[in-house]
Amino acid sequence: MSSRVEPILTVADLDLMPDDDNRYELFEGEIFVSRAPGLPHQRVLMNLLVLLHQHLKDHPVAKVWPNPGVIFDNFNAAIPDVVFVSNEHIEEIASGEKVMGAPDLVIEVVSEGAENDRRDRKVKLQAYSKFGVQEYWIVDRYQQTIEVYRLEQGQLVLVVALTNNDQLTTPLLAGFSCGLNQVFEE
Prior knowledge:
Blueprint: H1 11-14, E1 22-27, E2 30-35, H2 39-58, E3 62-66, E4 70-73, E5 76-78, E6 82-86, H3 87-93, E7 99-100, E8 105-109, H4 114-130, E9 135-140, E10 145-152, E11 155-162, E12 167-169, E13 177-179, H5 180-184
Parallel strand pairs: 4-7, 8-9
Antiparallel strand pairs: 1-2, 3-6, 4-5, 6-8, 9-10, 10-11, 12-13
């Protein structure tokens, strides 16, 4: 009895992907393709970036970037919506063209469709846990919720699911607080 073995792709294979409107990510050697997000997705992303950037102007303890390439190893590479790298880790993982290692915080805004939802809630959660991302926010613009996961004993675990008028905070950014209404406002 023989079994079919799927080819395992590497980060080098990502460089061979066409320059089109798709996003190519790699998890455990398997390629995941998604379309560029639409304007409602980008609005939520921009709101988050502005809120974080404004706080970091007064408290310059980290850098945030939208949609950077993050290389974890030869078989795992992502394009998160937002990454946050503390000043302690900038030189170590973010001094070149891409982030080469686990950011302190990764934020994903869920895109439309069951496959995108599964990717953010399962595949990326597992990968970000495996490589030591300290905190992961899953931002659901449809439900207007934010799930906050923190690394505990090598595993990202859900610590809070925010809704309605809840305040978003993080121990990674002392003094940062924003209402969910600010994240989802038009």
